[in-house]
Amino acid sequence: MTSSPLDPTAKLAQAPRAASVQKLAAALAETFDRVLTVLCAFLVLFMCVSTFLGVIYRYVLERPLDWPEEVARFMLVWLSLLAAARALRHGNYIALEFLVARVPGRARTALRQAVNIGIVVFVLILAVQAVEYLDIVIPQRATATGISMMWPYLALSVSFFLIIIFAVIDFVDWICSLLTGVSLSPAVAAFEERLALLNPHLDEPDAVVSDLHDLKEK
């Protein structure tokens, strides 16, 4: 049986080395993504429990605790920054894409990667500053819990590291997709889907955008 020209499995077979690298990068990103999802879920849970305890002790038992509000605040910091990295992975950042929708297929994907490179450069600058700032806050102690302020500020460095990892993996996926004709990046799928909504008459993309989960099932 002859494979359809749009069959992503057939396209991957045309460039086996690029496909292997692409799948490896996608699997690595998926692993990071799952770990982030679990961590964010636990942070939300612990933040809710901490806030609930604070309310109960303050307004019901009338014996207010010092630490619940501070713990919830630190968890919110970690949650926000980890979610920011995951948002890049799935292409959920707010962007002005109505002009990009008028750019042809290959130029459009190249422009998107140029934006990613700009993000990496910017985040690298911030990451260096964040690591240097850790030396300043290590001796400082939180008011209620007494933990080192390094722990809440460490969220910056971790988030920036993950953002860079996801951006690099996305770039590798784009390079490989030039050979395989298939993108395994969920950010690319979300990007093309939004552009299709902005302009229903977009030219057909050069690469067939396929969801990673669908490919794994095949």
TrEMBL record:
Q: Report the transmembrane regions from the record.
A: 35-59, 109-131, 151-172
Instruction: Output the superkingdom of the source species.
Output: Bacteria
- Cell compartments where the protein resides: Cell inner membrane
> Could you tell me which residue ranges the Tripartite ATP-independent periplasmic transporters DctQ component domain spans?
47-175
The UniProt entry lists the main location of this chain as membrane
Q: GO molecular function: any one?
A: transmembrane transporter activity
**Record's keyword terms, sorted:** Cell inner membrane, Cell membrane, Membrane, Transmembrane, Transmembrane helix, Transport
Instruction: Report the protein name in the record.
Output: Tripartite ATP-independent periplasmic transporters DctQ component domain-containing protein
